[in-house]
Amino acid sequence: MKTTIITLIGLMSLTTASFAADNAETIFDNKCAMCHMKTIPTDMSSLVAPALMGVVRHVKMAYPKKEDAVKFMVDYVQYPSKKKSVCMAQKISRFGVMPSQKENITPQELTEVTGWMFDNFPPANFRGGGMMQKGMGRNLK
Fold first, then answer.
1. Which end of the chain has fewer CB atoms at under 10 Å, N or C?
2. Distance between CA 79 and CA 77 in Å, rounded?
3. pLDDT of 103-119, one tens digit each?
4. Predicted local distance difference test score (pLDDT) of residue 3
């Protein structure tokens, strides 16, 4: 009986974690993916904002701890500014500063989505293809 209860609790935890990840990805797909794509872009000219992999890579370089990265992203998405940006100068020049999303996504949704982003992006084999790889990138922070 004790083993059955422990097994059920374990399964419920896995289901809850899986649901939370699915929910976060759904929120991303509905509220963020219209600008930030989840895959490596093949046609850079069609981008309206930096791809998710590059964004999260730069956030992780500036904020390697998940808690700090999530806090930064939640704040930045609601109150973006060039001064706070961790993107390369070329990205700001090309796309401008992200418009505030505080009217489009709640802080709770942002916390959920940015935690999911931190856990899932970029993939381990991602190396980036921007100017930073060529030693020409610059942080605006």
1. N
2. 6
3. 999 999 999 999 999 99
4. 57
- Minimum mean pLDDT among 10-14, 53-57, 81-85: which range? 10-14
- Neighbouring residues of 103: CB distance < 8 A, sequence distance ≥ 6: none
d(CA 30, CA 112): 14
Report which secondary-structure segment, H or E, holds 19.
helix 2-31
DSSP 63: -
Asked whether the beta carbons of 58 and 86 are under 8 A apart, the reply is yes
Give the pLDDT score at 34. 96
- Check if the beta carbon of residue 24 is closer than 8 Å to that of residue 106: no
Whole-prediction pTM value? 0.76
Rounded to 5°, angle at Cα 8 from 7 and 12: 120
Q: Which fold has domain 2-134?
A: Cytochrome Bc1 Complex; Chain D, domain 2 (1.10.760)
